[in-house]
Amino acid sequence: MNRILLLLGYILLLSAPVCGRGVGTRAVSDCDSLHTFRFVQGRDVLYADYQGNNHELKRLFAAVSSFRGPIADGKMRIYVDGHCTSGGSVHDNLWLAYVRSSRVKSELITRKGMKEEYFVTHNHAVCYPGEERDVVIVCLREPAGADTLSAARRNYGMYASRYPLLPPAVPSAPDNRPCPPPILFVPVGPAGHPGTVAGSGAENPHRMVFSLKTNLADWSGLTAEGRLGAFRPNLALELHFARRWSVMASAAYSDWKGGRDHRFWGVSGYSLEPRLWLKGDGRYRWFYLGVYGQSGDFDYRPSPAGDTDATGRSRTGRYRHAGLSAGVYVPLSRHWGIEAGVRGGYLHSSAKAYDNEPPHAYYHHPASFVRWGLTGINLGLGYRF
């Protein structure tokens, strides 16, 4: 029995270092203080009032003050990892990640007296785990050997698997451009309105974003009823503001034959649609909900060359509909994205049926109608400025 207990104790002693290197334990032991700073898509300014950055700064300053002695003695290092994938290319992402990392480091240098030699910095053109595309991660921990990129690959522990590093040939600062000056955007004013940074040209994270879009479903001639008509050129302008709101105005037009039977479709439409973006992080992507209103006129002739009988098959008039919309926007790059959504609600048409006998048309009977249901399909492609 004693031998069995001794054997179990020996096994536990051997397994303790291994268990200590598990993901959860390694994170606590290797990283004495972990901090995440988030940036507005496409911007390099560190906004204090954006996504909890001010709270993270206070935590980081407190941690640096607590470990000032070990940091100055070289027993602890400040690891800074910038992640960015919202740029137009790998080079743009690296440069933006580098500038953002420098912004965070500059706060520690100018406000807490840290030195450049205290930092180990790596920048990545890949997402941070959890689809975070615009973040800077700061970790305080003891150095494990020489703080080079290759050594960091070997000694980062859980970081090596969670935060993919770039090849050693890729520099942290593209083109060896100088480190930018520190910029911290802090809201000022009695009502908490955001201020500006002197000489920085920094923009408010609540900035307005413009986008131009077109609905590919209209270009294909697809209707809400699932029929194929004439293609309808269209264009939409969307204004995004206040992190989670946008308003889209659109127009579409056709005046020619189309569809399988080459019927004449004359359609014009004008629409206004306010939207609420559910994520509310100022990047205006993923899911949205909206309300909309649309109005226009139409002229439908199933036999453009002329009706063979006097049954009033052709239709012309005005229409209007209003209701709710829902969809999703998926960014492809910093500027380009695709969108898919539907509209549904109330549709009213003030129409007249007529007999088409070119070059004349003869009124036949009223043909107005009202219905509820699906009123629009959106398969869009957009560009954001």
UniProtKB/TrEMBL annotation:
Q: Which InterPro entries does this entry report, sorted A to Z?
A: DUF3575 (IPR021958), OmpA-like_sf (IPR036737)
- Look up the domain of life of the source: Bacteria
SUPFAM superfamilies per UniProt? OmpA-like (SSF103088)
The entry's protein name is Uncharacterized protein
